[in-house]
Amino acid sequence: MSKLKFILWLIVFFLMRNKVFSQINNSLLSQEITVADSLEKRVSLSVSNQNFLKNNEYFNQITTGYTLFGSLLSTQFAYQPTKNLKLQAGIFLRKDFGNPNIQSIEPLLTLKYQKNGYSLLIGNLEGNLTHRLIEPIFNYERFITNYNENGIQIKVDKKKIWSDTWINWEVMQYNKSNYQEEFAAGNSTRFHLINNTQNKLIAIFQGIVTHKGGQIDVDTNAVHSKTNLALGFMYKRKLNGFFTEWNTQNYYTIYKELAAPASVAISEGSGYYLNSEVKTKYHVYANMSYWNGMNYLAPRGGDLFQSMSSIYAQNKVTEKNRQLLFMRLGYQKQIFENFNIDVRFEPYIDLINRFFEHSYSIYITYKKDFHLFNEKNNTKN
Length: 381
Prior knowledge:
The protein is mainly β and 381 residues long. It contains 2 helices and 16 strands. It has a single domain (3-374), classed as Porin, CATH 2.40.160.10. The chain has helices spanning 3-17, 142-145, and strands spanning 42-59, 64-80, 85-96, 104-115, 118-124, 150-157, 161-171, 181-195, 199-213, 224-238, 243-259, 268-280, 284-294, 321-336, 339-350, 355-374. A 16-stranded antiparallel beta barrel has the order 1-2-3-4-5-6-7-8-9-10-11-12-13-14-15-16. The longest helix is centred in the N-terminal third of the chain and has 15 residues, at 3-17. It is globular and about 65 Å long.
């Protein structure tokens, strides 16, 4: 047995013995709009600041290393005319450190209607990490690089079911445009089969369709439509003592080309994504994830999970089978109200090519809604 295999199986044995064998919890980085009876007739200022450092120390053929380092700021005025309806408008800024210019400036505009556990959003969506998609389908770095999603969204949040269906219109084309239109449509649904204070068992379906095409452009590239699906389950168990929770998430994923030219190298594939995690009372967590993908592609998925090289790779290569073992260690805590810190160390082993690489990241966020005045009497706090 090679030295690498011996070390690998030693790690696996140790972690399995200690119930550490998960998809990362990104709840501290998600973006949701609060609609509540208490906010009726209120005008408020919503501020969301997210500071990030993600350093990928990669030297493989699928993707090379790069660093994301900067700050995101979303500032919006919000008005809730009724107990079910909220309007928001503002501006989004992205500033990359080491660049004197603002990387991105975008207007924000959202209408959200919420009643009896159902929500409708038009404009800027509760997107990215809020969809709760797994990383082989959705790269969580997109909350930095593609923060804003625009379109329409329908959400359900009931006792037995949570569901999110959306269309994100990414590129609009016009008559005689020299580029294709692009959009992504998706669904993320969770059915709560067991839900008590000690145990939770959740059946999960996720799917996303990405499209590049259009009819009024002069672009000569072929139309592309791809779909990625995942079917799986999550089991959570509360623990007492040093360890506070153990959970496992396991998925079978599918990739398929719905419309593509005959020259496409990979038209369909699949993968297994197996995860387990343990959390401690000191806000430290450890998890392990195993990925086995065969001819798998996902236009919005994490680079490491792909069977073809990413835009960051030095050369275009194809790896039919990808087998990766991730061993993650993190710290997530609300330091005080509205202020959170999230630190991650994410090493992995490429089991086929036999090498070890890692990434690390720090996210510091502040989110708060400031009450300005009430419409009824126009009096300040």
